Each structure stands twice: as structure tokens, then as C-alpha cells.
Amino acid sequence: KQQLIVFHPKGVQSLAPADGKSYWEIPFEPSYEMSVAIPVVSDNLLYASAIHTEAVMIQLGSDSPTAKEVWRGEAKNAVHCNNAPPVFVDGVVYGTDCLQGSLIAVDASNGDRLWETFQATKPDEKRFIKHGTAFMTRLGDSDRYLVMSENGDLIIARLSAKGFEEKGRMHVVDPTNESFGRPVVWSHPAYAGKTAFIRNDKQIVAVDLSR
Is the pTM of this model over 0.85? Predict the structure, then answer.
């Protein structure tokens, strides 16, 4: 059966697309009702997260619309995303953590953190930044990603369970907004025709990605 999975302020819920009948629901209440980051799916696992220490890994039924909780996020595990959705590939969840502000890789089987880095958000940071943000886009089925940092840099990087390997960086736009006392640009690029379209509050820049 087809199912529509919804992340709302009270939980993650499965609905029948035809009539809205509820198949299942797992209680999960983000702080301030901020169910913002889109949950991500890999095989039969779904990961949902929010600000503070809220995260849940859900195993979806393979033959019917059923689900069960695998593990919950805590203060020192998982990655708690809000501004930017995480990426879930090959048993690893990558995302920028609201409390730490770094890009964190998480073992999908148990929520353990594998590594973290500020290279994707604010490279000169050493401790933490509130709601540090980077928007990640995977290039096909490879381990290469386009990463848009909150300081206006477009980064090409390899991501794996072993770490973050930066391959190139280009400053595209200046951060023209402000959050928690620091300048930021929180805008996901648009990609089309081997071109990245990147904006702040003053301009839009087209970057040729074909070279």
C-alpha cells in the first residue's frame, strides 16, 4: 500500500493518500513545534530530527504500512537538524547540528557520532555556533557533495563514514542577514543545467559547474 508520511508538531505519522486514514504514528514533539527539517529515508529507515536533542530513527515495514522506533536522539548522539535537511546515505546520516553548529556524521544503526567538522559551516569556529547551517546536495550516486555554507562559500567535498574531505571552495555571496549575533546566508542554492543559482538578500549569482 502507498502511504503519505507526515512530520508534524506532535509526531511522525503515516496516512492513506486516498482518504487520510492513519496507518501508524510515532510520538515525537519538537521544541516550539518546529517540525521544519524534512525527514530523510534510506532503504527501510526514516530519520526525523529537530532542534535541541530531538531525533528519532524509524524502521518502516517492507510489506505493509507499519513502523517501529529503532532509537532516539540524546544530547551527545544523533544530529539535530532544523534549517537544513540532513542527508542519509549508505548507513550514515549527515547533517548540521542546531546546538553544536557543526556538520556531524551519525551511524544510522545506533545514533553514535562518527565525526564532526566546522569546515562546512564556519571554518574558523573552534567550540560551537547556534544553528550553524550548511545545505548539502549529493552529486548522483557518488560520495561527492555540493555544500553551501552559511558564510557564502560553495564547497565541493567528499563525505563518508571516515570523514569530510574538502576538494574545493569558492566564496560566492556575502552573508547579508544576521542570526545569534553573526552574519549568515541561509538560502539553499538552486541547481539546473550544470549551474548553481545562489542568493543572499541583495543579489543572485549564477555559478558555472561544468568546468
Answer: yes
Q: Specify the fold of 4-208.
A: Methylamine Dehydrogenase; Chain H (2.130.10)
- Count CB atoms within 10 A of the CB of residue 82: 23
User: Can you name the residues that pair with 116 across neighbouring β-strands?
Assistant: 104
| Residue with grid cell 541583495, as numbered in its chain | 202
35 near 9, Cβ under 8 Å? yes
- Class of residue 203 by CB neighbours under 10 A (exposed 0-12, middle 13-18, buried 19+): exposed
Average pLDDT value for residue range 92-116: 98
The domain spans of the chain are 4-208
Among candidate residues 205, 167, 166, the one with its CA nearest the CA of residue 185: 205
Retrieve residue 111's grid coordinates: 545514533
Q: Rg of the chain over CA atoms, in angstroms?
A: 18
